[in-house]
Amino acid sequence: MLEDQHNVKAWFYLAPALVLLGIFIFYPIINAVFLTFVQDYNYLLGTHEGFTLLDNFKEAMQDQNFSQAFLNTLFITFVSVPISVIVALLISAWLNGIKKLQGMFQTIFFLPYVTNAIAVGMAFAFLFNRDFGLINLFLGFFGVNPINWVNTGASWTQAMFALVIYITWLGLAFKVMVFLSGLQGIDKQYYEAARVDSASRSRIFRRITVPLLSPMIMYITVTSFIGAFKAYTQVIGMFGQRLGPPGNDKSLITVVALVYEGIDNAASPGALSEAAATSIILFGVTLVFTLINFQVSKTRVHY
Amino acid sequence: MADNNNVENNQVEETPVGQEEVAQVAERYYEDEKKIKRKKALRMAGLYALITFFALFIIIPFYWMIITGLKTTAQVETSPPLLWINPAEWQFSNFSAALERAPFIRYTLNTVTVAVVATTGTVFTTILSAFAFARLNFKGRDALFMVFVATMMIPGEIFVITNFITVANFGWLSEQTWLDALMAQTAPFMTSVFYIFFLRQAFKTVPDELYYAAKVDGKSDWQFLWRIMVPVGMPTIITITILNAMNTWNAYIWPNLISMKQEFKLVSNGLRDAFSTSAGRPIYNEQMAAAMIVTIPLIIVFLLLKKYIMRGVSRSGIKG
Amino acid sequence: MEITLQNVTKVFQSKKAEETVAVDNLDITIPSGQLIGLLGPSGCGKSTTLFMLSGLLRPTQGKIFFGNEEVTPVPPEDRGIGLVFQNYALYPHMTVRQNIMFPLENVKMDKEEAQQKAQNIADLVGIGHLMNRKPKQLSGGQQQRVAIARALVKEPRVLLLDEPLSNLDARLRLQTREEIKRIQRETGITTIFVTHDQEEAMSISDEIVVLREGVTQQVGEPQHVYDKPQNMFVAKFLGTPPINIFDGRIENGRLMIGDANIAKYDADDQEVKIGIRPEGFRIVERSSFKVTVDLVETIGRDTTLIIEKPNAEGETFRAIVDSEERVEPGTEIKLSVRPTKFHVFNKETGELV
Questions:
Q1: Cβ-contact B264, B109 below 8 angstroms
Q2: Which domain holds residue C34?
Q3: In-domain check, residue C111
Q4: Pick the CATH number of B102-274 from 3.40.50.170, 1.10.3720.10, 3.40.50.10330, 2.40.50.100
Q5: d(Cα A286, Cα B157) in Å, to the nearest integer?
Q6: Which of A168, A239, B7, C262 could cross-link A84 (Cys pair, CB 3.0–4.6 Å)?
């Protein structure tokens, strides 16, 4: 009785989820692959004109915004992720060192996680406003002239800087939470043993705390990279559908934004295929970097 | 490792001279102590300072949102910007202006409806599936589970493309009725592999013996699930509910794609569309007031339920 | 290195301002180069004392001396102590070699010299062949040896062990306690270990310190403390099976249990508690101590008689007799008590009369 197979019963329990997943997860995966290799797909009629191996990829990469989107996405990923991981690590280490008010600060640092990316994006955009924003006020204390971050005519550099700051701000919450949990999970006895072994505080941090925390660090790094590659909503939050400062439209476009642009143009034949191809390219790049991450971490991570 | 001190085995009480030497050595440490205490106090002060600095970094955007939403247009457009406004002057009219600009109440109701429907569906399907994976033996269980887990790694955009087509094919996008919109918003989100994974783990903590005992008592699996497993997994279920509701509230991409009429929008895309960046010079205070309408309810909910939310997030994070 | 604890007291304050006196006026001197057992039940303050010796805890009052030097304010890293935690606290992400070498990293030392030292100490404790393994690849006994090696590698003045045997299974315990004794002999370091198991403490210690609720009960060589307990607690705590306690009295210079005359005893007439070791009984032809045997347990080596007796604490008492004595349950026998095997205690205070 203990080892009974509940085959039929199990499938009944799984049925609702399976049906839904079938329609909205499994089928789309197959369909995305299908779309990628199909020519001139017309979604309204459901027809297509033959198959192709690379045409849709070519179309995708030749899109006028592709290289900008790719560049932006890479920039966002490789700048905001390391910064926010390191800052989160420091903040959680500091939080771990205090007792009073630790709970209150934890709550504060967690706030960005529950907020609406659009709403706060708008707030950030106004923060960076050239004439009325706090950032320029603050910089003014150091004698810096007002910079045009996000308003009409702002350059890519300025706008991207503001965007990266916003994205980093958003990303801190989850990381701090996970790191702090990890730190609190380290048995106090290791620290006591290290004290008896006459280790200095920085040595304890380097040789004991960080290695014991390394699985979390790795998990956070991998998931942060994956998440950063998908940046889109944050750009919408700050700049709206324009995806850039007025006069510099689409300068901050990301790869995901490109995909959704394609979906918006679904009626035009082949647009969906291009979008599918773009998303597969993104997936491929993400996969490659994730694997690299795993390789690198093999030597550094201790379980 | 011979013990050299065996040679001079002075008892402290016996040698007054030895006692002086002893006192000196200890003196040093007693003094160092004060220095150490001072250093420790400095270090703590430094920690609090650093933490407070970054905490301010986190809070300032919120503060800015709130204060801007309460300013008059004239106060907003001052340079250098005003940091504080007398409460007597707070412009609650900004909120009514925002509400006139776009039906945020309607958007809120829409979002709540979608959240309730989607979450109920998700919780239901998740409980059933997690139970199957955690408790029932069936052929292909592990393989199927692997497949589920694999899908978690695939980025969302890939699904969106086809789901858009699917939803259109169901006729939910053209001449959209309220029901159409609801179906389109919720159908793809009535289940989640991530939550199934998460709840399965919680269910697995129920010891086999409980199941066997229930069987011996003649209880069916269904009864076991709802009477024993669900109560045990309740903290996780609550977390799933809250997280799901939160995600619905903050969702932008899918609602934006498939709400075909103004009255079907959800709060996030409603907010963004109301203040689209193409329409000339934005009215900042109205914009921020609208942003507050969208943000503050969730923050209040968060503050009330923060234990569940934070615990749930960290647990889902740790298992990695 | 002789260790002196001078009027050491430790009081813990909980958040609700409740005070717990974990150690109360401990005043003892521990001789140099010996293996000392701190023995007592849970909560008696032994671990607290150990941690005060290590420097991880500060005494609320009192002073601690290592030899001539007062170390009370000295932090653990400067005291020259080695500490083996109950759960070993081996750094899980480091190999055995790295674990052992870790204390040496914090002292200026040539890398080669450090490696040599680590290897030597590892060989001494018997894990020299496991240097490249990680802690989770080792058995419990091996992990403990690594912990000991790590504590010894910096050549401490004092070695402290917190319940070293409690995490090991029964078979390993016997083996390991001999190892600890051997290591202590070979290194000659003053070693103090904490345990709640009296057999453990008795078997390897040169001296034991019996503690109860933070107060020293008795200090001395194990056999001595066993033979001459100063109070009822010590008498009951040492010895397996435990000492039998009877309600009795001293009357006219004689020690009586009920009608039975146990021995002559020079003290005032009073009600007392009498402790008699199980091995202290002899079956004799003539005695006023008449009892009926209830149950007989044979374990081969000797025979235990379980006898009902209303004056005994717990209604029955145990007598261990030679296995040659064939006794049937239900028979009546007469017992005498060897003079070195009974102790008389004050009924209220438990102190020796």
A1: no
A2: 3-237
A3: yes
A4: 1.10.3720.10
A5: 13
A6: A168
B17 to chain C, any CB pair closer than 8 A? The answer is no
Of A10, A140, A246, the CB nearest to B277: A246
Cα distances (Å, whole numbers) of residue C268 to A81, B188, C258:
85, 93, 17
Q: CATH homologous superfamily of domain A66-252?
A: MetI-like (1.10.3720.10)
Provide the 8-state DSSP code for C128. G
Distance in Å, alpha carbon of B13 to nearest chain C alpha carbon? 10
Is C250 in the same domain as C231? no
Tens-place pLDDT, residues B62-111: 999 998 888 888 888 877 778 887 888 888 888 888 888 888 888 888 89
How many whole angstroms separate alpha carbon C134 and alpha carbon C128?
13
User: Structural domain boundaries of chain B?
Assistant: 16-76, 102-274
Q: Are residues C229 and C299 in the same domain?
A: no
pLDDT tens digits along B46-72 = 999 999 999 999 999 999 999 888 888
Amino acid in position A101: L
Q: Enter the DSSP assignment of C269.
A: S
The pLDDT assigned to C54 comes to 92
pLDDT, residue A1, reads: 54
**Would you put residue C258 in left (φ > 0), alpha (ψ -120 to 50) or beta?**
left
Q: Which CATH number is C152's domain given?
A: 3.40.50.300
Instruction: Please check the confidence at residue B15 and state whether its pLDDT lies above 60.
Output: no
Tell me the β-bridge partners of C245. C275
Q: pLDDT tens digit string along C48-67?
A: 999 999 999 989 999 999 98
Give the domain-ending residue among C210, C237, C264: C237
Under 8 Å between Cβ of B290 and B108:
no
In chain B, residues with a C-beta closer than 8 Å to the C-beta of A232 are: 253
Distance to chain C for A204, nearest Cα, Å: 10
* B3 touching C (Cβ < 8 Å): yes
- C240-296 per-position pLDDT tens digit: 888 999 888 888 888 888 888 888 888 888 888 889 999 998 888 888 888 888 888
Task: Determine the distance from the C-alpha atom of residue A124 to the mean position of all C-alpha atoms in its chain, rounded to a whole number.
Answer: 18
